[in-house]
Amino acid sequence: MDTYPAGVTRPDVVNLEDFDAEHTMSWKSDCERWRAVISSWRTSLVAF
Q: For the chain, where are the alpha helices, taking DSSP H only?
């Protein structure tokens, strides 16, 4: 089963950030990168 179908089929609306961690622990695997990705995503919403 493909776990990333939306990111592959709709890259115009999905930005997949892959972290080397379990689903609920993603933010703990690389805190600085996670915060940067979330901050960038939130900024892009304001521009929308």
A: 5-9, 26-29, 31-47
